[in-house]
Structures are given as C-alpha cells and as structure tokens.
Amino acid sequence: MNKAIGKKLAAALLPLTLSFSAMATVINIPQETSATEEKRIVSAGSGITEIIYALGAGNQLVAVDLTSNYPPQVNKLPKLGYHKQLSAEGILALKPDMLIGTDDMGPDTTITQLEMAGLNVESFATDNSADNIHNRIRSLAMLLNKEKEGEALWQSIDSDLKAAEKLAEGKDKPNVLFLLAMEGRTPSVSGSGTEANSLIKLAGGFNPAEAQFNSYKPLSNESLLTLAPDVIIYSDRGRGLTMEQLLDSQPILKQTPAGKNARIIPVDGRLLLGGLGPRTGEIALSLAKAFYPES
C-alpha cells in the first residue's frame, strides 16, 4: 500500500478507534443484587430476636425491643422500648430495612406510620402451637436466606418436644398454673392466649385457668384453692425470687397440692414475651420431666 494512503487511512480510523475505546470505558453491565445481601433489622419481641440469633443472623440487627435480653450479646444493641409501645421516630432514625415482630407489636398507629414511610414490616402470628413455632422459624429463615439453618434449628426443637410428649404418653395430666410474681402486687395467673399456657401444653400439663379467662388475671385465695394446682411454675421477671420467698409472700400457696408437695418451679419469664423461641423445646422437656418425675 502507498505510504501516503496508509497514513491517511490510519488518521481516518483513529477517531473511530478512540470512540470505541471511550465507549468501552463507560459502558457498565448491570450487576444483580446478591440474594445473601445483609439487611438492617429491628426486632420487636424476645422470641423473634432469639430466632434471628439462632439462625446466625444476629449481626444484621441494629436495634431490639426491651423484652429482648437473650442471648447476652443482644444487650449491646440499642433498645427501642416495649414491643407493644414502639416509636416510629426512634425506629426510622436507625435507617433499618425491616422491622420484624409478632402481631401483638404496636401500637397500630406506629406500624401504620412505618409502613407509610416505606419500611418493610414483617409480622408473625403469636399462636404458640408447635406447628406455628415451626412456621415462624421457617418463614424467618426464608426471609433471611437461612433455610438450612432454619431446618436444623427446628429439628433440634422438635426432638425435645417429641421427647416431652413421650414422657406424658398414657398418663393423667397434672393441673399446672403459671404465676407471674410482680414485686408489691398479687401474682397474676396465666389463662388462655398466653405463651405460658402454650408452654404448659407443650410440656404435657393441663392449665385449669385456660377455660376461666384470657391473658393474665390476679386470683382470690378461694379461686387458687379451687383450681388445685399439682404444679406451679412462676416467673418474677429476673428478681431471683426463690420458692421459699414466694411461699412466704403468698402463704395461700402452701395450701395447694403444689405447695404441700414442694412442686413449685421457676422459669425465665423472658421466654414468655413476644412469642416462644428457640429454647422452647429445651424448656418444655425440662418441665415435662418435672411434671412426670416417675417417667
């Protein structure tokens, strides 16, 4: 090729070459968002918080409610009030991607405000049957891309629940009352619709107060004696109240079958707020062994 022509051709092609080169530097191929991208989560309810940690997603939590005190590392996180008295402003200030709780978190005005602000609010049923605990764990695991961990967690809980069920098999169920002992107040007894009532059932006991009332209610001495509990389980919300101290503060309990036979058992009240969580199977089995000591 004639050198002069070659130079002219090269000069003509140079701008085109530079144009393609420039295009190559500015064209960006869209990247898909990773399915495992971590979220900023606020949890409302101790049971929900415990499940999130048990699934290995505790590092995604940016704040929790006041009932969330387990596992211990949760106490390093900001606390945003009681799960039934949440503040929209406090939650939104943390710029979370999601609020996770149960259907008793609130108030409704706060939940509406959060949804209107565009926050993803995930609410799970507070029914604490074994099936619903399973569904809650499975749904949370899917939400957090922790399906394998969720299945392993449920298998562990289910194993303990089945062991508790086996202890009660073919035996008469003991009457079991749950007392919530508050300092300076008459203890309240759990009726239907409470986590305590569900735990009694899962452990193979019968709550005679279930048919009497819903939620918690202080009972007269006469009513307590009429219910005739064979076993009393109680929580003092972490004050360390012993069985002896409970009996001294409530002498009427000494006249119940449970008091006469010293079948009074403390439980961690944090298990009974915001839905039952990962320790449910372990605690149910422990209670079943106390309900059926001969097994």
TrEMBL record:
The keyword Amino-acid biosynthesis does not apply. Residues 40-295 form the Fe/B12 periplasmic-binding domain. It holds the Pfam family Peripla_BP_2. Keywords: Signal. Transmembrane segments: none annotated. Residues 1-24 form the signal peptide. InterPro entries: ABC_Transporter_SBP (IPR050902), ABC_transptr_periplasmic_BD (IPR002491). The keyword Signal applies. This is Fe/B12 periplasmic-binding domain-containing protein. It comes from Endozoicomonas numazuensis.
